[in-house]
Amino acid sequence: MMFSETYYVLRSQQDGQYLAARPDVEGDRYLLLFTEHFDALSYVNRFAEDYKAQISVESLATPSLKPLLQRWGYVGFALVRDPLLPRLEFLTAT
After folding, report:
1. How many structural domains does the chain have?
2. 1 lies in a domain?
3. How far apart are CA 93 and CA 68, in angstroms?
4. Quick check: is 2 in a domain?
5. What is the pLDDT of residues 23-73, one digit of tens each?
């Protein structure tokens, strides 16, 4: 990840939770991260159309990512490479 990039996340407007991926049902949570705003919207339209009025897309600068992981207890990121399949790249925070 580049230092000055902007990433996009999906957040529930009801409880403030971020959308996360769990490779194992009871396993660790990875924050879903998109490189483009339209990719986040495409993901919502494909997999959560019934909830799209309850989900917002937020932008995050790279320096704010690690504190967000720590605050919410995520072990890393699930970088969405293709929002329609979806194809995810799991990155563990160091």
Report:
1. 1
2. no
3. 11
4. no
5. 887 889 999 999 999 999 999 999 888 888 999 999 999 899 999 999 999
